[in-house]
Amino acid sequence: MKEEKIKKSKRGLFLRFVSYYKPHKTTFILDMLASLVFSLSGLFYPILTRQMLNEFIPEGMVKQIILFGVGLIGIYILRACMNYYISYCGHVMGVKMQAKMRSDLFDHLQKLPYSFYDNHETGQLMSRMTNDLFDVSELAHHGPENLFISSFMIVGSFVYLCTVNWILALIVFAFLPIIVLVSVKAQNDMNAAFDKSRQETGNINATLENSISGIRVTKAYANDAYEQNKFEKNNGAYVSWRSKAYKAMGRFSASMSFTTQICNAVVLIAGGLFCINGKLDYGDLAAFMLSISLFISPVENLLMFSEQLQDGITGFRRYTEIMDEKIEEDDENAKDIVKPAGHVRFEHVTFSYDGNSEVLKDINIDIPAGKIYAFVGSSGGGKTTLCHLIPKFYKLQQGMIYIDDAPISEISNRSLRKNIGIVQQDVFLFTGTFRENIAYGEVDATDEDIIKAAKRANIHDYIAGLPDGYDTQIGERGIKLSGGQKQRLSIARVFLKDPSILILDEATSALDNATELAVQKSLFDLCKGRTTLIVAHRLSTIKNADEIIVVEDGTIKERGTHEQLLKAGGSYKTLYEAQYKEYDEEAGGNEKA
Q: Model's pTM, two decimal places?
């Protein structure tokens, strides 16, 4: 039963791989025809050599020698043309197949849920997108070609060897099982080592991506030696496993070479004896010796092709592993919403990331449209998770969330997220210009709309004062900007998006007090007319919220206005007095949401 499943799995993998050839049928067929002509033409040299040595040279047939020589040159010209087509068009076909797979993979990655990215490193995904698919494209091109040419040459050359001397041909054929056994013995070691080295390549990419992204932190803490050691550990593991693979390949190559040379020696001795006994002409022996390589070389090519085959199969398997990950899908009855009022309601919502420990437990909240609700409490209490469930970043397990009385399960993901704006503590900005980053809120926005959004976010004056204005490059992840400028840019993006529901997840907690006060005005303007959920640690920033909800250990401990919660004398009052009373007195209590 298990073997049957493995067979079905391999068959399914093969059929999926073959499906990528369909758009390139014509190129593939022509490539195989070119390979056929290339293989056939390779047999002419020993055939002509045999006839020259046995007939034309002994009988002084100068004209025939010249004609056959010219004909051979013509055949080599044809082989060159076929080789050019195979090398050029075949590779282009492989690249196009690789591009299609990469496009499919990128599209699939866009549709995978948040939970997938919680468990997969960026560097590993990049490795599958680049290194793995390159190996797959090489297999796509060289695989059928090598199999076809080598198989044809093995059969064709063996038939020809039999026509020269069938006894010598059998001697050569007798070495074939030895060659195969040597290959099979090394194959298992190579397979395991190449598969492991592929994983280590992904680890190197992951470490590299992480280290380069955090290079400024590394420099700030003078931890370059620590990062180097981390990288060298993965790099060393890669070298170790790749070395094991090449050790197996070395044993294979040396054994193959030795076996081939022994075969040549045996044939030469036997052929010499046949010539002495008059059973073989000298021309036949010369042609036979030349033709042995036509039989042995494709066998070696097929066996040495195992590394590329293994790399390609491993790469395609890793590719399909991601392609088989379940994507986010709307329910069958899901519909688009255009511009909801923004009434949000949680009913008996319970949620767990791992299916065991509950992060949220029986949450019931009713947030009227246009109201500002704040969520406070210790880290890990479930505040951010609660907000992430609204745009369906994670699938609900128990209970339901409603938008304007419509269950979010009946709202399409795209239209729901189009109507929700999120401003987070860790602002992610794309490499590019101010214009491109603001326009991310609405990719079809006009310049007028972009400028209007920037003005509302209080960043227009800064951008307009730059030499290149809105076309100024902000650097990787906005490295050229201050924390406040990054946050204003993200706010401008949300202004342009103009959502009905707004989520502010620790939007100002990474800013200093002065910058926070400046950004708060932009946030307050952004909140106007929108249903707003604020996750905050700085309680002074949410004291004017319509309702404040204290979330602890996944449950609602307290709820009410700022004044009500202070009078209640519970957790909120303790947090407020311990953390923010002094700051609130200095700021004069003028901050607002």
A: 0.73
